[in-house]
Specification:
- It is a single chain.
- This protein is of the alpha+beta class.
- The chain starts with 5 loop residues before the first strand and ends in an 11-residue tail after the last strand.
- It has helices at residues 46-66, 83-93, 101-109, 121-129, 161-169; strands at 6-11, 38-39, 42-43, 71-78, 115-117, 134-138, 142-146, 151-156, 173-176.
- Helix 1 crosses helix 4, helix 1 (46-66) runs antiparallel to helix 5 (161-169) and helix 3 packs across helix 4 (121-129).
- 32% of the residues lie in helices and 22% in strands.
Length: 187
């Protein structure tokens, strides 16, 4: 059991876009399934989605670096979809099946207790954000927990001030949780 002292929630939402309390003044997408839907007179595109997905990957890797985690372990995993269902969904949403091959290969091998390298974490993040799996990752110094609506919880044994600054520069929201962390965690 690790002794996590600091907890953050990162999200894609700006102050006027918070989807959970429905009080934001600007409607925004909250799911990969929103691709093709109109928000603020514009269609939400696959490319816009992929840009945000890349930002989440970079943000989580920044926290990994800040907490000196070179790998994460799959602590909890829910994997209820078949490969065929995921492949159909990729095509339906307009993603490239060819460009998704590595992610799909990773889907087939990922299992609870598995160690994920810094480079491989990209595939787990993509699978989680696209709602193909639910996962909680952990190292000796941090955890990453994927929530609904593009909220990702991160806990660390260190303050990670530099990571917070870098992620904010990526145009993401970073909120410090008050202790205790409100969700059950493996920590």
């Amino acid at each position: 059991m690790i002794n996590i002292n600091y907890f953050w929630q990162i999200s894609k939402y700006k102050d006027d876009e918070y989807p959970l309390n429905q009080q934001g003044g600007s409607p925004t997408w909250t799911s990969v399934s929103d691709i093709g839907t109109r928000y603020n007179r514009r269609i939400f595109t696959v490319n816009e989605y992929l840009t945000m997905e890349e930002t989440f990957i970079k943000a989580i890797q920044v926290f990994m670096t800040s907490s000196t985690s070179t790998k994460l372990m799959v602590k909890q995993l829910e994997k209820s979809l078949s490969l065929e269902v995921i492949e159909d969904d990729i095509v339906k949403k307009g993603f490239s099946l060819e460009e998704s091959k590595e992610m799909l290969n990773y889907f087939q091998i990922v299992e609870q207790g598995m160690s994920i390298s810094f480079a491989e974490v990209e595939f787990i993040i993509r699978l989680a954000l696209r709602e193909y799996i639910w996962v909680e990752l952990e190292s000796e110094t941090m955890f990453v927990r994927f929530d609904y609506d593009y909220y990702v919880d991160i806990g660390s044994t260190e303050r990670c001030d530099e990571a917070v600054k870098q992620v904010c520069k990526m145009n993401m929201s970073v909120n410090l949780w008050d202790k205790p962390y409100p969700f059950s965690s493996s920590t």
